[in-house]
Amino acid sequence: MNDKEKVMKWIAGEIVLSDNPGESLKFWRERFRVSQADLAKALKVTPSVISDYESGRRKSPGTATIRKIVKTLINMDEMSGGEVIRSLSHVFGTRLSPEIVLEIREYPQPVKSHTVIKAIQGEVAANPELLEQSVFGYTVIDSVKAILTLSHEDFRRLYGLTTERVLAFTGVTTGRSPMVAVRVIGITPGMVVLHGAIKQVDELAIKIAQLLKVPLVLSKLETTEELLLALRKCG
Predict the structure, then answer these.
(1) Strand positions, DSSP E, 95-165
(2) Do 39 and 29 meet the contact criterion of CB atoms below 8 Å apart?
(3) CA 29, 35, 36, 42 torsion: positive or negative?
């Protein structure tokens, strides 16, 4: 499966699994900088059909139709130079396996940081004054496997479409290694979440968070599945 097919499968999955498929469809159409009229013309439907899908006035299209819409968006982007597809393709490195990247998603609209913290039963360890900002997605990774396996470039791919996202590390014991990794990468996310058997967050981890000016949050949820579910529901 090439990068184009991976991107198409990813976006289609995002729309199908969304609690609001119409809103998700609108997000991706706008991400590809395609108007409702142009998309409708390419699909040989009226603009009102696209508008009704996005507003929820019309029943959400089935999986086959969603895949057709996504494929059309990608084809239209390729015809105009492929800028968006190139920006998305960098996410998919060969080492970003599902065992390492547990989930990577974009929210259809900005989500307040306080909303995320409440959902994940978070305890702020550093920089609570920075929590007025919003996040636009999240990436959840297995902390140990990622640090032992991923290259510097692989880590950069974890940021998806935007750096203004939650970067959540699971299997954490102190938080030192994840924060050192974030420091070395040189890209600061919108929020770092630590999840695991953590009795106390490492002092160096807190100092790095303060240096980078990134909110550092400890999730009190018991399982990784609960963390994933909570992050999904935020958007």
Answers:
(1) 101-112, 122-126, 134-142
(2) yes
(3) negative
pLDDT in tens, 98-144: 678 888 888 878 999 999 999 999 999 999 999 988 999 899 999 98
The packing angle between helices 63-79 and 36-43, to 10°, is 110
Element (H, E) at 168: strand 166-170
CA-to-CA distance for 203 and 221, rounded, in angstroms?
Answer: 22
The CA distance from 187 to 149, in Å, is 19
Give the model's confidence band at 175: pLDDT under 50 very low, under 70 low, under 90 confident, else very high: very high
Q: Using CA atoms, how far apart are residues 80 and 69, in angstroms rounded to an integer?
A: 17
The CA distances from residue 93 to 61, 118, 161, 185, in Å, are: 31, 32, 14, 16
Top-tier CATH class for 3-89: mainly alpha
Closest to 36 measured CA to CA, from 48, 20, 22: 48
Tell me which fold the domain 101-234 belongs to. Answer: 3.40.1390
Lowest-confidence region among 26-35, 79-88, 209-218, 222-231: 79-88
CB 160 within 8 A of CB 92: no
**Per-residue pLDDT tens over the stretch 43-88:** 999 999 999 999 989 888 889 999 999 999 999 999 988 877 776 6
Residue extent(s) of CATH 1.10.260 domains in the chain: 3-89
